[in-house]
Amino acid sequence: MPVETATHEIVLPQAPVDVVDALVHAEHWPVRFPPTIAVDVLSRDESGDRLRIWALAGESVRSWETTRRYGSGTIGFEQSRPAAPLSTMRGDWTIAAAEDGAHVVLRHAWEAPESSVEFVRAAVEENSTRELRSLAETTGRGDVLVRFDDSIVIAAAPAHVLELIWAGEDWPQLLPHVLSSTVRPLGDDEQELTMEITDGSGARHTTRSIRVRSDSRVLYKQIDFPPQLAGHAGAWVATSTGPGTRLTSTHLVSVRAETARALPGSRLESALRDTIGRNSQLTMARIKARLESGR
């Protein structure tokens, strides 16, 4: 198979060190880069890291493991377990000082079967363009990242808890704040969940998320979100404990700078817990009641 290559570049008004920081912290990519759904940091030290990444490629979800090496103004990467249909994928980011800020170059080199060449070319082109555009829009803008979680213990097996989490089509019957829901399967362990929900004030909102099952978790990235936010991702994590299962809802929220300035300090997290966190807590309480009642 011949090696295909692609190069994308952009000049940003931010300092190179800020761009490098945004690229190194891949755990924030789900709320920074539109294609990225979730990232697990498997290991990290001063020389590099190893990541598992879930991302959209066209209308499908792909997952792979990649090893990255940090250099002076460079981040090299190579997929150790490439996502099908790739045989190999490697490349690098280079970040250099420019007169107006930072010159960023993203390079890819890959091998894939001839039948998949056009699909891979299109996916690399779309995702690279969107990632660079997102860097331009968000780096240095002053958005604030907030991470929080809530937990509950349920007297049921983790598999039964995760089954109710995954069955989003049944949520209108389970959850009073979900007025309607539609699930579109994207694979055996991937789905798109669209819901019409109400918040504490009674206002209605439509939300759309991409969700992935992985081990004892359901990972998700919200695609449609309120204009005050720049991104929202999270996970439902079910772990065995003495009485049954500890269900934890985690949230990573990127709040736009102007909204964050209006809610300084602890007021911002409190506001997020009162809105996003409230619905998650209600969901966990309803799942607990359903499973412990035996219905």
Notes on the structure:
With 295 residues, this protein is α+β, with helices and mostly antiparallel strands. Helix content is 26%, strand content 49%. It has helices at residues 16-24, 117-138, 158-166, 171-174, 257-262, 266-293, and strands at residues 4-12, 36-45, 48-57, 60-71, 74-81, 88-98, 101-111, 144-154, 178-187, 190-198, 204-214, 217-224, 229-241, 244-255. The strands form two sheets. A seven-stranded antiparallel beta sheet has the order 1-7-6-5-4-3-2, with helices on one face. The mean pLDDT is 93.
In short:
This protein has 295 residues and is an alpha+beta fold. 26% of the residues lie in helices and 49% in strands. The N and C termini lie far apart (55 Å).
Sheet/helix structural class = alpha+beta
Low-confidence stretches: none
Strand order of the largest sheet: 1-7-6-5-4-3-2
Distance from N terminus to C terminus (CA atoms, Å) equals 55 Å
What is the subunit organization of this protein?
Answer: single chain
From the spread of the alpha carbons, the general shape counts as: globular
| Number of β-strand runs | 14
The radius of gyration over CA amounts to: 20 Å
Total of DSSP H or I helical runs spanning 4+ residues = 6
Q: What's the order of the H and E elements?
A: EHEEEEEEHEHHEEEEEEHH
Assess the beta-strand content as a share of residues.
over 45%
